[in-house]
Design a protein that fits this description.
Number of strands: 4
Structural class: mainly alpha
Strand content: under 5%
Radius of gyration: 23 Å
Largest sheet: 2 strands, antiparallel
Number of helices: 18
Shape: globular
Strand order of the largest sheet: 1-4
Order of helices and strands: EHHHHHHHHHEEHHHHHHHHHE
Length: 511
């Protein structure tokens, strides 16, 4: 049993035997969770090829027919709607709420619904990414392992274990344990003296899990997923005109991203009232947008469909093959499809934002004073900041994508990201958090009175098993990184970690 009373000094906690046992558990979970995440991504890629390439050929068509996305996206809606409506966990949290890794890891009963909804969404061409399902997968598998091992564990210890599993899973996608840790750190609002204590198990799990891809001794790894785009033209240094473009791109991304986000929020309540009927209709609309783009430009429907993760590199590399009219049509179709996907399906919002930002940057690079590379970089960073509300992560992801030119364009990206973040905050209503009803954890217990928590946490009763009991009122739900005195930021609807030294009795139960 991993149970201890949390001391005020994090250094005391780091030297405790309970924390050492937690680190060992995180290391043991790293490799299997990373392997499961890799398998999920590989399965999605395989199904995409089968559905959009091999199946049309098998039916006698010479390649994908122009109308093919229509039935495929309708089937996506038919598959996802009953999962959200009837299975525990509602298929995970709604992506219209933004990037929310702190909503709690799915329980073993909820995990199948999360995976089924994500698999249908991603495999059938819906415009969402895999990062949110991977975070849920990692946290859910970590909690499942604890349950199978029949380990009694308090809520906060379970939260750290689930977070470690999420670290390992999302690092598989980003190709770097550091990038995964950075993403979840900013998204969860971690800070203060407990930052290292909470992050260390996740960093260890993702580091050990990386051996699945890079290999160990004579064992060959599976290979890594890389976000970097090769073969970009060299960019030496920014000039004054490009800083002017950074202001323009930041404002434009804030307007476009806010419109997409509001479209998703506007459609969602209507879809939820008649989900079984309207989710396939939204799928048909997404498919229709892909067909319209293909017929209007002669380009592949994959430019509009999917998250854009695999299509981003070819888009930038072959940017010269797209006219301004084609780019504008792609921006409109992809943006509308993205907003519709946010309202009705399950997945992550990150990669479509990166792709739309790149399309906008390429389109603007046809204007004087803006080369391709800085235009793409500023578009990616600014749109990511608007949709994720994570400015630091937006700069980091842009640097990873434009690996060879990342350092040279970073000043421009930072300016564009800051402008986009501030302008979008002013465009966003102060109270936008209507999302708890769609969260995968259904964690309504967190609104209970803290007085009962204090009375139960100070007793000498045994620690509650995270695998067999629901979180007590006021407890940190599994998969949510512990926070001290969190206060909600109205601009981001996230609760950053406060620096107050006061800790509730429940928070003193640590791994």
């Amino acid at each position: 049993m991993i149970v201890m009373t949390t001391p005020q000094d994090p250094q005391v906690l780091l030297r405790s035997k309970s924390y050492l046992r937690l680190l060992i558990l995180a290391a043991l979970l790293g490799a299997p969770v990373s392997a499961a995440a890799y398998g999920f991504l590989a399965l999605v890629s395989y199904l995409q090829r089968e559905i959009f390439t091999h199946l049309p050929n098998g039916l006698g068509f010479h390649g994908e027919p122009p109308w093919w996305p229509l039935p495929v996206l309708a089937v996506a809606g038919l598959l996802v709607a009953p999962v959200i409506a009837f299975l525990p966990g509602k298929g995970g949290h709604s992506p219209a709420d933004g990037f929310k890794p702190g909503g709690g890891a799915p329980t073993p009963a909820q995990l199948p619904g999360v995976l089924l909804a994500a698999l249908a969404t991603l495999s059938l061409g819906v415009v969402l990414g895999p990062e949110a399902p991977l975070i849920a997968l990692g946290g859910g598998l970590a909690l499942l392992a604890v349950r199978l091992a029949k380990r009694d564990m308090p809520a906060q210890a379970a939260a750290v274990v689930a977070a470690a599993g999420s670290f390992a899973a999302v690092s598989t996608l980003l190709g770097s344990p550091i990038a995964g840790a950075f993403l979840l750190m900013e998204a969860s609002g971690l800070g203060g003296p407990m930052l290292g204590v909470v992050l260390l198990p996740g960093l260890l799990a993702s580091g050990v899990g990386a051996l699945i891809f890079v290999g160990l001794d004579s064992l060959t790894g599976l290979g890594t997923f890389s976000l970097s785009v090769p073969g970009l033209p060299h960019f030496a240094r920014p000039d004054i005109a490009e800083f002017g473009w950074a202001l323009v791109i930041g404002v434009a991304a804030a307007i476009l991203g806010s419109a997409i986000h509001r479209l998703g929020l506007l459609l969602r309540p209507h879809v939820e009232r008649r989900m079984l009927l309207l989710t396939p209709v939204v799928g048909l609309i997404i498919g229709g947008l892909a067909v319209a783009y293909t017929e209007g430009t002669g380009k592949s429907s994959s430019d509009v469909l999917f998250s854009g993760q695999s299509q981003l590199g070819p888009l930038i590399t072959h940017a010269g093959g797209y006219s301004v009219a084609a780019l504008l049509l792609l921006l409109a179709c992809k943006g509308l499809a993205y907003g519709g996907s946010l309202s009705s399906f399950r997945g992550g919002p990150t990669f479509p934002a990166l792709y739309i930002g790149a399309v906008g940057g390429i389109a603007l690079s046809h204007l004087p004073g803006l080369p391709l590379v800085p235009g793409v970089a500023m578009g990616i960073g600014a749109m990511c900041a608007v949709m994720l509300r994570l400015p630091l992560t937006s700069v980091l992801l842009t640097s990873l994508l434009l690996y060879s030119d990342g350092l040279a364009v970073m000043p421009l990206v930072i300016v564009a990201v800051v402008v986009a973040y501030v302008v979008s905050a002013r465009l966003t209503p102060a109270t936008t958090d209507s999302t708890d009803s769609t969260d995968s954890t259904d964690s309504t217990d967190s609104t209970a009175s803290t007085d009962s928590t204090a009375s139960t946490a100070t007793s000498d009763a045994p620690a509650t098993s995270a695998a067999t009991a629901a979180p007590s009122p006021g407890a940190v739900s599994a998969g949510t990184v512990p926070q001290q005195g969190a206060a909600v930021d109205p601009a981001t609807s996230r609760a950053p970690l406060a620096s107050s030294p006061e800790m509730s009795p429940e928070q003193k139960r640590m791994p």
